[in-house]
Write a structure and sequence with these properties.
Strand order of the largest sheet: 1-2
Low-confidence stretches: 1-23
Radius of gyration: 17 Å
Number of domains: 1
Mean pLDDT: 85
Order of helices and strands: HEEHHHEEHH
Number of strands: 4
Helix content: 25-40%
Distance between the termini: 56 Å
Length: 174
């Protein structure tokens, strides 16, 4: 019995290293920050509206409070949020390296707009435009399932190099 437990633990460790080694590039827009400089930890404490309604505006990060992860700089609104992030970045980073969740479901990497967000099963998802949010919200579990299936082939590809449509980007404060 102990041998089996150790084997599972060894396999889990190997898989975690493998996932880190094959992580794709984080989407970074013209602000130079992941998630356009918004505080990814803060999303998890914001009130979330019902499906079909626009969510609360995200919280801007501060240029001097940052952390590096997956080759990108993340900005935070407080040192406490930065510390929460550095202790467990996988909990807070947007799914699909910040790319549009619906785009990944449809088989491509397109920018994720940080103002079009939703927390599902304690994970942060972004989409690209309000119209796309409407399509994604028609079947969130189904689209997440498709995205999960598509992501292994998309993940190693370079990050999206397009800008977010109709988005006037905003670098972090201060």
């Amino acid at each position: 019995m102990n041998r089996f437990v150790l084997t599972i633990a060894a396999a889990a460790t190997a898989l975690s290293f493998a996932n880190a080694a094959f992580a794709g590039e984080q989407f970074v827009d013209e602000t130079g920050f992941a998630v356009s400089g918004y505080d990814v930890v803060a999303y998890f404490s914001l009130p979330q509206n019902a499906v079909g309604q626009t969510n609360t505006a995200p919280v801007e990060g501060i240029k001097s409070i940052t952390a590096e992860y997956n080759g990108a700089t993340f900005a935070f609104s407080s040192e406490a949020n930065r510390d929460l992030f550095t202790a467990n970045p996988e909990k807070y980073v947007p799914q699909y390296d910040g790319h549009c969740a619906y785009g990944v479901a449809k088989g491509g990497k397109v920018p994720g707009n940080p103002t079009l967000w939703r927390i599902v099963d304690d994970k942060l998802f972004l989409n690209i435009t309000p119209n796309v949010v409407g399509f994604w919200e028609e079947d969130i579990p189904g689209h997440i399932n498709m995205s999960t299936g598509n992501w292994p082939s998309l993940d190693p590809q370079p990050a999206a190099d397009r800008t977010i449509p109709q988005w006037s980007s905003m670098a972090p404060k201060g």
